Amino acid sequence: MTKKDGGKKERKAPEPALRDVLRIPAGEPVDLTAYDARATPAGPTDKAAGLAATADLGPRLAGLQERLYAASTAGDRRRLLLVLQGMDTSGKGGTVKHVIGPLNPSGCRIRAFKAPTREERNHPFLWRIMRALPQPGEIGIFDRSHYEDVLIARVRELVPRRRIGPRYGQINRFEKSLAEDGVTVVKVFLHLSYEEQRARLLQRLDNPDKHWKFDPGDIEERALWPEYRRAYEIALERCTTAEAPWYLVPADRKWYRNWAISKLLLEHLEALDPTYPPGDFDVAECRARLLAS
Amino acid sequence: MTKKDGGKKERKAPEPALRDVLRIPAGEPVDLTAYDARATPAGPTDKAAGLAATADLGPRLAGLQERLYAASTAGDRRRLLLVLQGMDTSGKGGTVKHVIGPLNPSGCRIRAFKAPTREERNHPFLWRIMRALPQPGEIGIFDRSHYEDVLIARVRELVPRRRIGPRYGQINRFEKSLAEDGVTVVKVFLHLSYEEQRARLLQRLDNPDKHWKFDPGDIEERALWPEYRRAYEIALERCTTAEAPWYLVPADRKWYRNWAISKLLLEHLEALDPTYPPGDFDVAECRARLLAS
Questions:
Q1: B74, B284, B278, B281: which is closest to A217 by C-alpha?
Q2: Which GO biological process annotations does it have (chains A, B) (predicted)?
Q3: Model confidence over A191-246: pLDDT tens digits?
Q4: Which of A85, A137, A236, B289 is within CB 3.0–4.6 Å of A69 for a Cys-Cys bond?
Q5: Rounded to the nearest 5°, which phi and psi values hold at B44?
C-alpha cells in the first residue's frame, strides 16, 4: 500500500488469507483454461523458499492437530476433511505423503477411493463416503472422493446422464449436513497442465522403479482431457458453496502445491482454534495418591 | 571374537539381529521382573546416538514400505502388522507418532482399540480385529489389540474365567492363519517399570496441556500392577509362537523404545525384501503415444 501523504511510514498491507486467494468464486462460471497451473498466486515464489516455508508449517499443523484431537476427548465434535481431486499425476498421493506426513498418523483417517466395488455400486454413491468420514478430533483425507461420481462417471458414462444431474445437489446437501455436524470440509482441486501431465507420465516410464505407478490406461484417459476439464468445471461451478468451497491449487510445481495445501490446512485449523480441555479431576488429590503408590 | 592364533587381524563379530536379542524365548516361563525396563540390550546406549540412529532408519523404512506397497499392485499379498501392547503410559501412542511418523501415511492402517462397543461384544473377540487388518502392501499398526481380551478382560474379570482359557489357543490359531496368508506379525511388549509409570503420570498431572491424557481411573488400574504383570506373563508365555513371536522392548527410555521398534520393523521388512514389480506394458510404444499426445 503506497500512501500519498509522504510523511508517514509506508505500512505493508497484511497478507490476504490464502483461502481468499485460492477460493473459487461462487455463482460464476468456471473456466479452467484461465488459470495458470505454474502460478504462485501468493506465498513463496521459488522452490527453496517454498520448501523452507512448508517445513515451518509442519510443526504448527501437528500442534493444532493435537489440540483438535484433545478437544474431542471432552466432547468437541469438530473435525476436518481434506478432499483431494485432480487429474492423474496431479499429486494427490504426493500431497498425502508430504502435507499429511508431518501430522500424527493416529489422528489421520486416510482413504483412497478406487473404482467402486459391486457392494458400493449397489448403494447410493455417498454410502462409501459416509463410511470413511473422520470422527471428532480427526483429520480425514480423501484421495479422490464422491466427486468421482460426477467426473469419471460423467465422462465415461458409467451411469445414465439423467442420474448425474441430481448428484450435484445431493453432494451440496450432503456437505451442508457435514458442516452442520462440525466437519470443516476443505476441497482442493489440484490444477495440472496438460504438458506437465505428459512430462510426469514420461518420468514414470523412464524409471523402472516407477513402472508400478504407470497404467497404459492413463494414456486413454488423457485423450479425454477436454471432457474431464469440462466435468471439473461443472463440478467446481455447482459445488462451490458457502459451507464447502473449492480451492484451486496450481499443481505444476510440487513444492508450491505442498506449501499451498499445508497453508490452507493451517488457516482452517487456526480458525477452529481448538483448545486443550481442562481436566475434570482434583489434581492435588490425584498427585497425592500417585506419590503414595 | 578374539582369536588365539595371534597373527590374524581381529574380526568383529557381526551384530546379532535385534529380533534375536529381543524375542521372548518360546516354551519357557516368563518372569517380567527379570527384565530391566531401562536396559539397552543392543544398539545405541545413549540418547544422542539413539536419536541419530532412529533418524537414519526413517528413510530406509519408508523406502521398504514403498516397495512393499508397489509389490502389492502386482499381486504380492504380503503385509506387516505391528501389535503394540504395554501398561498405561508405556508409549504405544508415542511409538505411532515417532516410529510410524516417517512412513507414508497412505500405506499405514492404524487402529487404536478401546473398550469394545456393544456390537463388538456381541461378536467373537477377534471379530473387530479381523476388520482392522492391513491389506496387501500395507503396514498395520494396532495400539492395543486382541491381547486386551486376555489382559484387562482377565484382570477385571470382564468375562468369566472359563472363557479366558480358550482364548490363548484361539489367538495362536488366528495368528498362524494370518502368517499363512502373508501377514508378518510383529508383536511388541513395551516393558515399563512401575516407577517410570508414576513419573509419567505425574508429568501429565503437572502440565495442564496434558490433562486430557489423564484419567483418575489410571491410578486404580495402577493399583492392579501385579495382576496385570501376571496377565502379561501368561500371554507372553502362551502366545510366543514360531509364526508370531513376542518381542520385549525396554520402554523406560523413549529414545531407546523408538530406536528398537524402528529397527525391528526394518529387520522384518528387509527379510520380506519386497521388490518393485516390472511393468507389463510396452515402454517404447507408450512413450511414443505419450509424446504424440
A1: B281
A2: polyphosphate metabolic process
A3: 999 999 999 999 999 999 999 999 999 999 999 999 999 999 999 999 999 999 99
A4: A137
A5: -60, 150
B27: CB partners within 8 A, 6+ apart: none
Nearest alpha-carbon partner for B134 in B70, B178, B74, B84: B178
Give CA–CA dist B177/B183, Å, rounded: 9
Q: pLDDT digit string (tens) for B208-262?
A: 999 999 999 999 999 999 999 999 999 999 999 999 999 999 999 999 999 999 9
Pick the closest to residue B95 from B79, B107, B108 (CA basis).
B108
Q: How far apart are CA B133 and CA A267, in angstroms?
A: 34
Average pLDDT over residues B194-206: 97
Return the C-alpha torsion angle A110, A278, B91, B129, nearest 10. -50
A284-290 long-range contacts (CB < 8 A, ≥24 apart) are: A286/B205, A286/B214, A286/B216, A286/B219, A287/B202, A287/B205, A289/B219, A290/B198, A290/B201, A290/B202, A290/B205, A290/B219, A290/B222
Q: List, edge to edge, every strand of the sheet that includes B139-143.
A: B108-112, B139-143, B79-86, B183-191, B246-250
Cβ-in-10-Å burial (0-12, 13-18, 19+) of A34 comes to exposed
Residue-level pLDDT at A9 = 58
pLDDT of B147-168, one tens digit each?
999 999 999 999 999 999 999 9
- Sequence-distant (≥ 6) Cβ neighbours of residue B243 within 8 angstroms: B175, B176, B178, B179, B180, B185
Residue B135 exposed, middle or buried by CB count within 10 Å (0-12, 13-18, 19+): exposed
d(CA B44, CA B64): 22
Task: Please state, in angstroms and rounded to a whole number, the distance separating the CA atoms of residues A164 and A239.
Answer: 13
The chain B residue lying nearest A209, using CA atoms, is B276
Phi then psi for A141, rounded to 5 degrees?
A: -130, 120
The grid cell for B201 is 503420570
Q: Tell me, what's the pLDDT at B6?
A: 46
- What amino acid occupies position A248? L
Calpha distance B70→B56 (Å, rounded): 22
pLDDT above 60: residue A281: yes
**ipTM metric:** 0.91
In chain B, which residue's Cα lies nearest the Cα of A67?
B209
CB A200 within 8 A of CB A260: no
Which residues from B are below 8 Å from A when comparing CB atoms? Answer: 70, 73-74, 93, 96-97, 100-101, 103-106, 108, 110, 112, 141, 143, 198, 201-202, 205, 208-209, 211-216, 219, 222-223, 276-279, 281, 283, 286-287, 289-291, 293
Burial per residue of B30-48, b for 16 or more beta-carbon CB atoms within 10 angstroms, e otherwise: beeeebebeebebbbeeee
